[in-house]
Structure prediction request, 129 residues.
Amino acid sequence: DTFKRKIVVHKEPLKKIVNPALDVYAGYMETSTPQNVEYVPQSRTIEAIVSYIDSASSQTSGLEDDLHVSIPRNASVRIKVKEDSRDYIANGKTERIVIDGKSFNLVGKEAVKYNFGTKLFVYYLEQTT
Prediction:
């Protein structure tokens, strides 16, 4: 495990209606209708403890970590976050997480670990291509 560091969590963009009074002209192609929806990106920088998983050991079926949780076969990173960061990750769709300039997707289920009296939530990530 590393000391805590900053990672960026990207969520599904919010749809924003630009002009709700805009009419669609009947009999014309869709291209004649101006774009009425704008997508607003959502992301937050959070602090996490980041661990890279050895690629040889992650290929082993049934391998478990110190939480007695099966490590997903395609996982390459494990992160541990506090409850406020867990709430941000869990609510809505998380599209990707950026660590060290690389993009990752969530895999598997979250687990809970108590570390020196602090409740941490553990996630496994796979690197996207």
In short: The CA atoms of residues 106 and 125 lie 5 Å apart. Confidence is low (pLDDT under 50) at residues 58-63. Helices lie at 55-58, 83-90. The beta strands are 5-17, 37-52, 77-81, 94-99, 102-115, 118-127.
